[in-house]
Amino acid sequence: MSGLIYWLDLAGVTIFAFSGVIIACQSRMDPFGMLVLGAVTGIGGGTLRDLVLGVPVFWVAAPSYLWVILATVSLSILGFHYIHRLTRTFLPVTDAFGLALFTVIGSHKALVLGHAGIVAVLMGLMTGVAGGMTRDLLAHRVPMVLRQEIYATASIAGGVVYAGLFTVGLNHVPAIGLALATTLGMRLAAIYWGLSLPT
Amino acid sequence: MSGLIYWLDLAGVTIFAFSGVIIACQSRMDPFGMLVLGAVTGIGGGTLRDLVLGVPVFWVAAPSYLWVILATVSLSILGFHYIHRLTRTFLPVTDAFGLALFTVIGSHKALVLGHAGIVAVLMGLMTGVAGGMTRDLLAHRVPMVLRQEIYATASIAGGVVYAGLFTVGLNHVPAIGLALATTLGMRLAAIYWGLSLPT
Amino acid sequence: MSGLIYWLDLAGVTIFAFSGVIIACQSRMDPFGMLVLGAVTGIGGGTLRDLVLGVPVFWVAAPSYLWVILATVSLSILGFHYIHRLTRTFLPVTDAFGLALFTVIGSHKALVLGHAGIVAVLMGLMTGVAGGMTRDLLAHRVPMVLRQEIYATASIAGGVVYAGLFTVGLNHVPAIGLALATTLGMRLAAIYWGLSLPT
Question: Which of B17, B91, C88, C188 has the fewest Cβ atoms surrounding its Cβ within 10 A?
Fold first, then answer.
């Protein structure tokens, strides 16, 4: 089980680091600016989660995460010219996968430590949005989470689904799958149809 | 004593969460954007305080804080049309109450843990301003604390009063009252008369 | 050894606090806004470092750091008119010294705790850039680290040099000197010749 979480976490870190690199490219940063933005986006949310939960920060305990970020950023620099040709929807779709993965992992970590459902939902939200929020703040963009599309909503829904299934004792793998599908489905639908909640 | 602190803390969280909701409304965010901004403002400062003090984060230990934020945001959404009619001074006045409450609670927590007076003053300031600062950054506003009105000044003054009275052993309830009155009085006076320090 | 680190750390805190005060002056903040920006810049990076490393936050354990910031800001207010006459390159040069000092101290702290080299490099980078990044975000400037000049690059280079020399067991004082010279030399060269990496 913790093996699956580890791999999902690595995937989330890679995806979010890549989203940071894309924005750094668009903002014409130099390679190490790209590294900073990739790292902040990839590990920002999980770092905050571990600090708040009072457990050792994941990438200090397992530096492999940092090598993955370094590799992601390096490969992105080599494939730089392709990044500039990516369509406008590529970034939000990438971000949606990262959001779904980090939401589930954040909720999972809190529940395994015995915290209440509402704490787990918030921890999922924090893990999912903090990295991307810092990325957008640093690049002088309005954070995705605060624009009108369904974003925090999708993370909270995924967290509620996961906390509910975890509490009723559903085997973890289907619970993870359903929660991932909830967040990802809502975000992709919002991107595809331009959905938003009423304001 | 810790009962009084708990209730003051709940009041501060509610007030600051509400200030986050008001700004989210003004920035035309959707209901979950309002929830994110309400939560960040309500628990941001106390989270940073607990992390720095090395104690368990308050809302992880007592999830009732999160339900209070959820209720505050939900009621605000129902009363949405009234929020739009609030006068321009309502927000800074609300924020002043939150600032006073969080300043005293932050200083109190540090002093009870045996830290030096200057640490307690800074902890009060951090608890008081970090949530609102993040709220303003996320909503692309210049943080209140960095505009020219007396803001950090009021928090530092309240913290100094509380640390002083705590050190001379004054019974806690009057010490809390005097410190609250100091911060609140200075902020409200600054808002009412448009006071500012010379630059 | 830890005595040397302590003095270098105090020097870094003072220098970064002063850089915060300069920017606060330029943004026409009041004295307590200057105090907030000075404190955030001076202790922001080290606070994040200690939280992530899971050790007591340095200025909570040793409040002398806070008195140093208070003195730096107070003296700056007295010398206010001179700050306005500083040349445009004074701020980045000051910042370069702070960056070099904090990079080495951050890497040193991580290595002494037994962490991997890549963790130490990132910790040096985080300690070096987090305070200044928050300073620039609060003052509505594009963070230096994300502009095109060699900035993160200089910190990473210094961290790599220090981690390498530490690992091969070089006596600490020359290792500190060489790492400081690496970061500082790269930054000053970048400022002097307007160097940047290709984007």
Answer: C88
